[in-house]
Please model this.
Amino acid sequence: MNDVTSATAAKPAIAVHRGPTGGVLAFNGNSVWSMYRFQMVRFFRTIGESLATPVITTALYFVVFGSAIGSRMAPIVPGLEYGSFLVPGLIMLSIFTNSIFNASFGIYFPKFTGTIYELLSAPVSYLEIVIAFVGAAATKSVILGLVILATAYLFVPVQILHPVEMVLFLILVSFAFSLFGFIIGIWAQSFEQLNFIPMLIVTPLTFLGGAFYTVDMLPPAWQGVAQLNPVVHLIAGYRWAFFGLEGDNVFVSLGVTAAFTLVLLGIVSWMFKTGYRLKN
Amino acid sequence: MKPVLSIRGLSKSYKGGLQALKTVDLDIAKGEIFALLGPNGAGKTTLINAVCGIITPTTGEITAAGYDTRKDYRAARSLIGLVPQEMHIDIFETVWAVTTYSRGLFGLPPNPAYIEQILRDLSLWEKKDEKLQALSGGMKRRVLIAKALSHEPQILFLDEPTAGVDVELRRDMWNLVRKLRDRGVTVILTTHYIEEAEEMADRVGVIAKGELILVEDKSTLMKKLGKKQVAFELADPLKALPDGLGDWSLELKNDGSRLEYTFDTTAERTGVSSLIRRMSELNIQFKDLDTRTSSLEEIFVGLVHTPKAEAAAQLKA
Model:
């Protein structure tokens, strides 16, 4: 600590020396990029662990359900191998769980270590924090989705009729579930709570969401109930992008995703406005 | 001159009903070193957190360089750096990563040369690629300081900067604070080490039970509240205080070989010369004498145990 002055000696005494001062439209690019990059650097540093688990899990699904069981099954959709049928649903499953995990952990961890103080005292808006943290988690999910898709090619024949829609849908769902995870991360006050919602709500919804079957295979009474499960529409829409099946549902799927995202945005802005579990 | 930091009517009550701060008003001048002194739980950290945006005040307004910390939070916060009391760090990251992150987070473009200078100044350069979990406690605290300095704050809060650090780091910290002041940075530090406030501060605020019970120039404070003591080393020990010395508040120590007289420097008559005269009348000889001014610590302990009104009255006296 010999000379802390030298580094800035050349600078004039600083009045406010940085860009936008408040205002709704002001956007602090340096801050958002720093937060986003910080999250992503951590992801790439542990990319092996980040990708290995979901990829291995998905590969196991293909081996067990696709090859071992699927080969003895009558096809659910005529002309489509069961293994191929599984691809969109399995990608969505991984996207749901990993988006929630990454985003919730991303904001819970600073709360846990206490480094959240820096975020709260920084000249950034809540919107900027959400864009950076949720954006980083969604980016990870999209990368993961594409890696799982590539893995699927190794096991089963895959066709993608609407590739652009497939990617857009992947991004949209990644963002929506990352936002959901972000909210869980703010809400959670312990690691147990962090796992609580994914285990208790998301896993059942996804298993009942038609990843392994189509909804019209359910008993008629349950088909109506299934329509209330948003995950059903997400998987149906995503499957449409691959196989062009259930084409009627694609707008419902987009509508459901958009509505889900809007509700989440409402919750997150309420959380920040009231400082819910972020500050006293 | 307009204050660089102005706090008006700031109060904070927590949901549980605890009132951590009761209507605090405070102005800090640019470039001064202000020490906020108080026992644990007095509201020091609450005050800092309210200024920095970490808690939401119940009432009151805060401006930094004229910018309202709520309405113009971007401008206000970009001027403020905070070194928290607790070791809030990301142990899996490197020194370099967290320091550059802090700069970016506060909206500044990268400046590796500047970050390098800070790390060198804080003796952290050798450790820049180490993960924080590998660092000692003192080093971690230096990292917290580096993070706060990385975005070139004009107002720096040091919340108990020297709690639990070794003597060397404490001395380094004091030097650092002085250098920052020379650069025009305003430093507000909280401490319960009186010697720190005495050593560093231009002004001292004493906070107790959520109330700022006094704000005063350090020297004025010490003069105003200072008690002075004269001690006589007696040639022949006394068994008891002679009756003739009953008018002075005296104490006999060291088996009667030391006679101590405590007096208030602000009183009209200190009574020192009359005491010495009386002693010679009584033929009490002394070999040596020394005088002592009471330290800020003694003043402080006296204050936090005194109700506000009384403390104010004491000051006016």
User: Anything to note?
Assistant: Residues 27-274 of chain A form one domain. The first helix of chain A runs from residue 29 to 45. Chain A touches chain B through 49 residues (CB under 8 Å).
